[in-house]
Amino acid sequence: MENFIPRLISFLLFFAISSSTSTLRHRGRLTDSDDPAVDLHSISSSSSPSPTTFFEVRRPIPVPKSKPCSTLVLKHDFAYTYGSPPVTATYSPPSHCHFFGPSPSRIVLEWSAASSGRQFDRIFGLWLAGVELLRSCTAEPRPTGIVWTVRKDVTRYRSLFSQPQTLAVFLGNIVDETYTGVYHVNVSFHFYFARRPPPPVFDSPADLIIPISNSLPLNDGLWFQIKNSTAVQGKNVTLPRNAYRAAIEVYISYHSNDEFWYTNPPNSYISKNNLTGIAGNGAFREVTVRLDGDVVGAIWPFTVIYTGGINPLLWRPISAIGSFDLPSYDIEITPFLGRILDGKGHSFEFGVTNALDVWFIDANLHLWLDSKSSFTEGSLIEYQAPGFVPSLISNFSDLDGDFDTVASRTISATGWLKSSFGKITTHFFQRFDYSNKMKFSGNGSAQAVNQSIFYNHGTYAKNSSTVLHSEHVFQIFPLYVYIGTSDQDEDSYLSIANVTVGFDEEKRYFGEKIGFSYTTLRNLQSGEGVMHVKGNRVTSGVGSTRQVYGYESNDGCYFRNVSSSNYTILYDESGESCTKNSWFRSSGHLPIKRKTI
Ligand SMILES: *[C@@H]1O[C@H](CO)[C@@H](O)[C@H](O)[C@H]1NC(C)=O
Ligand SMILES: *[C@@H]1O[C@H](CO)[C@@H](O)[C@H](O)[C@H]1NC(C)=O
Ligand SMILES: *[C@@H]1O[C@H](CO)[C@@H](O)[C@H](O)[C@H]1NC(C)=O
Ligand SMILES: *[C@@H]1O[C@H](CO)[C@@H](O)[C@H](O)[C@H]1NC(C)=O
Ligand SMILES: *[C@@H]1O[C@H](CO)[C@@H](O)[C@H](O)[C@H]1NC(C)=O
Ligand SMILES: *[C@@H]1O[C@H](CO)[C@@H](O)[C@H](O)[C@H]1NC(C)=O
Ligand SMILES: *[C@@H]1O[C@H](CO)[C@@H](O)[C@H](O)[C@H]1NC(C)=O
Ligand SMILES: *[C@@H]1O[C@H](CO)[C@@H](O)[C@H](O)[C@H]1NC(C)=O
Ligand SMILES: *[C@@H]1O[C@H](CO)[C@@H](O)[C@H](O)[C@H]1NC(C)=O
Ligand SMILES: *[C@@H]1O[C@H](CO)[C@@H](O)[C@H](O)[C@H]1NC(C)=O
Ligand SMILES: *[C@@H]1O[C@H](CO)[C@@H](O)[C@H](O)[C@H]1NC(C)=O
């Protein structure tokens, strides 16, 4: 990863000035997840010798009872891979699976990995035919070893699996005498063939997926790298002329100076205090998706904390929400199809408002094709993406102060499209509300950030008489981070961190054939960690994390209540009952309104 170098440099820089009493610098250094402080040799030596299993709390993927047809596609040891091409393997539809009959009803990607020694959290991506299937972060090993498994439902990429394709994995790792952790990885696909169709999922998989990513060969991930607020990167693609529906799915991760963008102070604070080496540009970020230069959708990202983030002891063994399977974001572009079905190239590009080095972004264009005609036609009826400026209220003197940032925006588009299904009008809208309250106290030795993102979006498709499908999603991403540091002597300090991060979501779907369906998810983690840091090593410390996960849908429920402290699970309760979930029911509801259609 190119971002490794700047991090090393800033690390050395911090060292050179480590006698400064500004504990902000400790914050800057510690919140860098490539921080070598994540050396836990000294506190893990007395732990049991068997490998620790790390995990992210999620609902297990519901699969048919039948045994899957499985294929191991890649087995690789990621040692010194930084600056090398992605590791590739050929995926072939397994001959022992009956691919020539009905399509698999469920496809599951399984990443299983083991490591031991000392290593950073490494971001990685996995692509099939250039289409990204997984963006993730490695768990940080212990000397006694760790293992973890990520299972992801990849049924929506089904059209890729019927023919041979190149699988590529980029995981930029550096192994030397200090950072010894090699990642031993297996990648498998499991295909489930159910005799009857599975319960309705929100969408049938697309017929064709066009990657909006860099092409092999290259010595990096297939993602684009966005390093500043003016950079726009992407690709020109030509669409088949019989598409009747299109959605772009965007994968995002942020690193180095923007790994903790939500804690970045405004530049005025940095310059007034003559701070150097502190990432700024304030705490607001927006990813924009541009079609031929027009912003057709936005993403106000969920705050994934990687496994070494804030205090690495918090995430052992319960990993942060989204860290093992970063969320991707869908933007419906069907209203714009009429503009781009001309057989010519059209550009899909990405930018990041206020970006600092570096954001990794790419996307998959999911297309549904009209099998009964070779041309569809359409037109945009309405499109609005008004500009906006986040408001900042700033009140600081020296290193202490308050910063309140608030922003909102809407984007909407309506267009019609004529295919063998008739003339269908599709409306897509997004509404975002963001608030970030940041407080520095104790002469800059403590920072508290309280942020919320509200994201309300939906798609409605109808012909002149009937609603054919509609989807309405409401998400809330609450985040609270408190970091306090105190210097102990010239080269050591104490850090206290509290983190609360949540991912709440309510989805309502209506499909002409399947009727109404819904899912509701409330997923909340909170943790506290203390660590003593000397030089670049955590010499002692403890992290505790609690998580409550509640999922309800017409197709099943899942509940889990789990807590860990100092690598040990304190309690772990889970169930699939939809009725016993009193916490869930008493926790109030997301403010979604059933849209009358
Ligand atoms: C606050 O921190 C700055 C920089 O570390 C230092 O110069 C200053 O003396 C401190 N002020 C107080 C009141 O401690
Ligand atoms: C954490 O666990 C280790 C052994 O597993 C123990 O030696 C250490 O005292 C514990 N730390 C705290 C703060 O409980
Ligand atoms: C990978 O698969 C091999 C068998 O092919 C197995 O021995 C090994 O333990 C697996 N590794 C991981 C990390 O799952
Ligand atoms: C922003 O990034 C682009 C692409 O990486 C680069 O060409 C441009 O010079 C950068 N702009 C600034 C102001 O650094
Ligand atoms: C896309 O094509 C346009 C003109 O056809 C060209 O100006 C632009 O540079 C291309 N963009 C990319 C990302 O290739
Ligand atoms: C920042 O630097 C300027 C110019 O050297 C100086 O006048 C000012 O007092 C400094 N401010 C702080 C907070 O150190
Ligand atoms: C700015 O902060 C100071 C000190 O905390 C406080 O007394 C003052 O009321 C604040 N001003 C505003 C406008 O918030
Ligand atoms: C964060 O802000 C929200 C709403 O502004 C408030 O309800 C919540 O208590 C705050 N959390 C903390 C930890 O201050
Ligand atoms: C609208 O769709 C419904 C359901 O598919 C169909 O029965 C009806 O004929 C369609 N109406 C028009 C005007 O195409
Ligand atoms: C941090 O969490 C601890 C334990 O829950 C709590 O006692 C403390 O008040 C919290 N501090 C802050 C600043 O949020
Ligand atoms: C989770 O379990 C803990 C310990 O048993 C319990 O105190 C807590 O109330 C539970 N939380 C929920 C939401 O069930």
TrEMBL record:
InterPro entries, per the entry: PNGase_A, PNGaseA_N
Stored Pfam families: PNGase_A_C, PNGaseA
Signal sequence range: 1-23
Keywords: Signal
Residue ranges of domain Peptide N-acetyl-beta-D-glucosaminyl asparaginase amidase A N-terminal in the record: 66-385
KW Zinc (keyword) present: no
Record-given protein name: Peptide N-acetyl-beta-D-glucosaminyl asparaginase amidase A N-terminal domain-containing protein
